[in-house]
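Response to reviewer comment R2.3. The reviewers asked that we include at least one raw input/output pair. We reproduce the pair for HMA domain-containing protein here without editing.
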Amino acid sequence: MADAHTYKFRVAMSCGGCSGAVNRVLGKLEGVQSYDVSLEKQEAVVVASPGLDYETVLKTIKKTGKKVESGEADGESKSIDLPE
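Raw output as returned:
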């Protein structure tokens, strides 16, 4: 378990439907061990297996159409810009 990654994203969500959409996509993503989406804190925290990278999780959250305002991987700030 020690090599699991923790990714934290600040996501602009205005309602339960927004957080529900993020919940749904994370629930389907392979390699996610656990996740917590908080409408109150405007964040999504994902515990991922070693094979699931930051960019994949970021891309999955962005697919919901929600604005990702910041991200971090294992406590370090990361870019939220995806390579085209």
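The chain has two helices and five strands. The domain at 5-76 is CATH 3.30.70.100 (Alpha-Beta Plaits). Further pairs are available on request from the corresponding author.
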